[in-house]
């Protein structure tokens, strides 16, 4: 299908009929960076990055037109001298280089009215923050190198050149540009321009050149990149492979802080948790614009874009990019016998702030003084690196991406699971994984924080306490029916587990019909199916991969993600299964320091009524339960126990 309009119509049809969901988007790619740890700021590094991304075309994909790629791009430090010259050539007085900010922006190419509306939104936002708008600069491009599909969807690519107000620090400048970017996306939503305005980068530090092409077309498409004045101390590069998505200009990488090769398996939960907590998140640096950053995670983007959104918000709240990475994509720490207690406490503290964004991941990132790369805690993506005598650090999805003289190589290797490597550009210093860990250990007394405020529930079985509850006769039968314990399930599932302590072995193949089509009485849980990464993930088993997996579960709400305060009263369970004894122990914690309330999760079944009317009783009971939970939470209750133990002949349990 060569016509872009037909493809968009197909995508719309699939969405409307439940066959395609943007939130399921994943991608798998090639990624890396070239950087100097000796302060070299040159076109040589940019050129090396461009050659490296051209060597990654085999990690991308090509459309049926044999030209359009899934997306590729680079991120470099803004060449301030060059942009100061651009501003001077446009009739302005040559600005101080530290005062320059640049936005790389995609606009609708064929709709001039929408173009003007998008520019007006940008200009209004800059005016609100008292920034100087020097000019809009058309970015020279060569569309003839694009495939037909890429060219049909090609945006108008322009740069907005910005001046910092006098007296504003560089850190505040970057923070305000972040707030402007988030405000612009909210404004675009309000004006129905969300699909027309896209900000590749808006920064005083970094600039992104990307598009819907393959790696060998990046320098061919963007003329600017071939200028000797296009200099940088680093170059992050990325070649996208769209595993189960529709490629687009906006989803090409790098994003605003990172480039990511992998899949975030936990992405649905990560997005929902961030949405659930964002109303309570506060950052003093954002002042009156706290709400302008919402939503923190932009909808309808890929998993990599969502990870970038989260990292960007954490960094702009005041944490450095290394800590942001350690929070979002942590090392496996709880069972690591070689890790120091100080470093374990650092990760334990982060665990009270946010849940891991877990899945195969090779990352390259740049922000502030840092440029670096990292792997996920399972090490499920390749990341090779080489350090040269003339001051270069090269990291990539494979060795040999950048041509360096072998006699200049002083060290080479690969990142292990959870490891990082990076350069502090200000210090002109190379940091290996152990050096970065040392920074984490020394930042705060995380060990004392965790000791004082994180407690673990004793979930050991105590044989001296009889917690067994026995049901017999009609009472037992009623409960089996209510909770869908069929004779087959009792024989084939429960009995083997009780006798052998493990799941029964069965042959492959599952001819069980969809739950909605089943005639027998079944439980609510059977309507849910486990989602999994279909393309590149090896299976991971908790018993066989104990070193990198954990069943620990936190109770009590997480702290402010954007703060640096001590953890408060975090209760940790060693596993998510609660026995009656566990519940008893939790209830005994009432008032020290937990406020605990048990809510009845049963309702009057009215069995004599018709099914449609019974459904109304269930809905009414569920609404009432939600109201009770909300009132309890607003009054300070921090642990709610939903109990269906009051079920009887007249009362049925609300499915949980």
UniProtKB/TrEMBL annotation:
<protein>
    <recommendedName>
        <fullName>Glutamate synthase [NADPH] large chain</fullName>
        <ecNumber>1.4.1.13</ecNumber>
    </recommendedName>
</protein>
<comment type="similarity">
    <text>Belongs to the glutamate synthase family.</text>
</comment>
<keyword id="KW-0560">Oxidoreductase</keyword>
<keyword id="KW-0288">FMN</keyword>
<dbReference type="InterPro" id="IPR013785">
    <property type="entry name" value="Aldolase_TIM"/>
</dbReference>
<dbReference type="Pfam" id="PF04898">
    <property type="entry name" value="Glu_syn_central"/>
</dbReference>
<dbReference type="GO" id="GO:0006537">
    <property type="term" value="P:glutamate biosynthetic process"/>
</dbReference>
<keyword id="KW-0479">Metal-binding</keyword>
<keyword id="KW-0315">Glutamine amidotransferase</keyword>
<dbReference type="InterPro" id="IPR029055">
    <property type="entry name" value="Ntn_hydrolases_N"/>
</dbReference>
<keyword id="KW-0808">Transferase</keyword>
<dbReference type="GO" id="GO:0004355">
    <property type="term" value="F:glutamate synthase (NADPH) activity"/>
</dbReference>
<keyword id="KW-0408">Iron</keyword>
<comment type="pathway">
    <text>Amino-acid biosynthesis; L-glutamate biosynthesis via GLT pathway; L-glutamate from 2-oxoglutarate and L-glutamine (NADP(+) route): step 1/1.</text>
</comment>
<dbReference type="GO" id="GO:0051538">
    <property type="term" value="F:3 iron, 4 sulfur cluster binding"/>
</dbReference>
<dbReference type="GO" id="GO:0016740">
    <property type="term" value="F:transferase activity"/>
</dbReference>
<dbReference type="InterPro" id="IPR050711">
    <property type="entry name" value="ET-N_metabolism_enzyme"/>
</dbReference>
<dbReference type="GO" id="GO:0046872">
    <property type="term" value="F:metal ion binding"/>
</dbReference>
<keyword id="KW-0003">3Fe-4S</keyword>
<keyword id="KW-0285">Flavoprotein</keyword>
<dbReference type="GO" id="GO:0019676">
    <property type="term" value="P:ammonia assimilation cycle"/>
</dbReference>
<keyword id="KW-0314">Glutamate biosynthesis</keyword>
<dbReference type="InterPro" id="IPR017932">
    <property type="entry name" value="GATase_2_dom"/>
</dbReference>
<feature type="domain" description="Glutamine amidotransferase type-2">
    <location>
        <begin position="29"/>
        <end position="426"/>
    </location>
</feature>
<dbReference type="Pfam" id="PF00310">
    <property type="entry name" value="GATase_2"/>
</dbReference>
<keyword id="KW-0411">Iron-sulfur</keyword>
<keyword id="KW-0028">Amino-acid biosynthesis</keyword>
<dbReference type="InterPro" id="IPR006982">
    <property type="entry name" value="Glu_synth_centr_N"/>
</dbReference>
């Amino acid at each position: 299908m060569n016509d872009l309009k037909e493809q968009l119509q197909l995508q719309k049809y699939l969405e409307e009929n439940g066959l395609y969901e943007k939130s399921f988007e994943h991608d798998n790619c090639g990624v890396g960076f070239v950087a100097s740890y000796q302060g070299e700021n040159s076109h040589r590094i940019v050129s090396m990055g461009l050659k490296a991304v051209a060597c990654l075309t085999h990690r991308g994909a090509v459309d049926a037109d044999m030209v359009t790629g899934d997306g590729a791009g680079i991120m470099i430090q803004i060449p301030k001298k060059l942009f100061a010259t651009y501003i001077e050539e446009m009739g302005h007085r040559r600005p101080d280089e530290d005062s320059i900010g640049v936005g790389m922006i995609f606009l609708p190419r064929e709709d001039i009215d929408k173009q003007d509306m998008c520019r007006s939104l940008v200009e209004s936002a800059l005016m609100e923050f008292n920034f100087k708008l020097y000019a809009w600069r058309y970015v020279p491009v060569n569309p003839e190198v694009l495939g037909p599909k890429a060219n049909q969807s090609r945006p108008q690519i322009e740069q907005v050149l910005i001046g910092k107000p006098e007296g504003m620090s560089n850190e505040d400048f970057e923070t305000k540009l972040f707030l402007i970017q988030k405000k612009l996306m909210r404004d675009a939503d309000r004006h129905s321009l969300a699909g027309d305005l896209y900000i590749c980068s808006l920064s005083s530090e970094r600039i992104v050149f990307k598009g819907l092409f393959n790696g060998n077309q990046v320098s061919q498409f963007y003329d600017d990149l071939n200028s000797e004045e296009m200099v940088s101390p680093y170059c992050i590069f990325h070649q996208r492979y769209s595993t189960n998505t529709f490629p687009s200009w906006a989803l090409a990488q790098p994003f605003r802080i990172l480039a990511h090769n992998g899949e975030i398996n936990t992405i649905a939960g990560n997005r929902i948790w961030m949405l659930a907590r964002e109303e309570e998140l506060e950052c003093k640096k954002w002042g009156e614009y706290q709400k302008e950053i919402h939503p923190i995670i932009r909808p309808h983007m890929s998993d990599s874009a969502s990870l970038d959104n989260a990292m960007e918000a954490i960094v702009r709240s005041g944490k450095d990019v290394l800590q942001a990475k350690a929070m979002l994509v942590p090392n496996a720490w709880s069972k690591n016998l070689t890790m120091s207690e100080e470093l374990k406490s650092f990760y334990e503290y982060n665990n009270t702030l946010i849940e891991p964004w877990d899945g195969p991941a090779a990352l390259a990132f740049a922000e502030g003084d840092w440029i670096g790369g990292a792997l996920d805690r399972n090490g499920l993506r390749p990341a090779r690196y080489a350090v040269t005598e003339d001051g270069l650090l090269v990291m990539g999805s494979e060795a040999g991406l950048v041509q360096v003289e072998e006699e200049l190589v002083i060290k080479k290797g690969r990142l292990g699971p959870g490891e990082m490597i990076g350069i502090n550009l200000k210090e002109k210093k190379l940091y290996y994984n152990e050096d970065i860990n040392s920074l984490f250990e020394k930042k705060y007394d995380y060990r004392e924080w965790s000791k004082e405020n994180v407690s673990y529930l004793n979930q050991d079985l105590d044989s001296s306490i009889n917690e067994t509850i026995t049901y017999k006769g009609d009472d037992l039968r009623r409960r089996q029916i209510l909770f869908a314990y069929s004779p087959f399930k009792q024989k084939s599932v429960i009995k083997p587990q009780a006798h052998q302590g493990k799941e029964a072995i069965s042959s492959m193949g599952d001819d069980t019909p969809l739950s909605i089509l089943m005639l027998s009485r079944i439980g609510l849980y059977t309507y849910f199916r486990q989602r999994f990464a279909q393309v590149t993930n090896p299976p991971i088993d908790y018993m066989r991969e104990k070193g990198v997996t954990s069943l620990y579960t936190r109770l009590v709400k997480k702290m402010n993600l954007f703060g640096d305060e001590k953890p408060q009263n975090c209760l940790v369970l060693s596993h998510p299964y609660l026995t009656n004894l566990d519940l008893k122990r939790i209830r005994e914690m009432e008032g020290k320091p937990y406020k605990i309330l048990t809510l009845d999760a049963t309702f009057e079944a009215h069995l004599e009524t018709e099914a449609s009317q019974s459904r109304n009783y269930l809905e009414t009971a569920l609404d009432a339960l939600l109201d009770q939970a909300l009132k309890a939470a607003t009054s300070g209750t921090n642990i709610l126990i939903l109990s269906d133990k009051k079920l009887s002949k007249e009362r049925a349990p609300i499915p949980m």
